[in-house]
Write a structure and sequence with these properties.
Blueprint lengths: L1 H63 L4 H26 L2
């Protein structure tokens, strides 16, 4: 009987240790998720900044008139995309 009690105590001790480890891993997981979210925001901001810089580059090239045909087409497509987005926004505002 004493052997059974000792075995139960050992199992209980191991269970408590596992629960502490589990709680520690949950905390670490939460911290990692927060860090991942922060990094995702940084990546998003950097992508937006890159897009803005690429647009500025195209505008500068256009103003210098040193664009080749492919670059002119690319810029025209971007401008047309912006115009479509503006038209959509105007349309949505008109429905309200």
């Amino acid at each position: 009987m004493a052997n059974l009690n000792n075995h139960i105590v050992k199992l209980n001790t191991q269970l408590q240790l596992l629960l502490k480890q589990h709680n520690g891993l949950i905390l670490e997981n939460t911290q990692q998720k927060k860090m991942l979210h922060k990094l995702d925001l940084i990546v998003k901001e950097q992508k937006e900044q890159l897009e803005k810089l690429e647009q500025e580059k195209l505008i500068l090239k256009a103003s210098l008139d040193t664009m080749n045909e492919e670059e002119k087409k690319k810029m025209e497509q971007k401008i047309n995309g912006y115009i479509r987005n503006i038209d959509k926004c105007i349309s949505l505002l008109g429905h309200k």
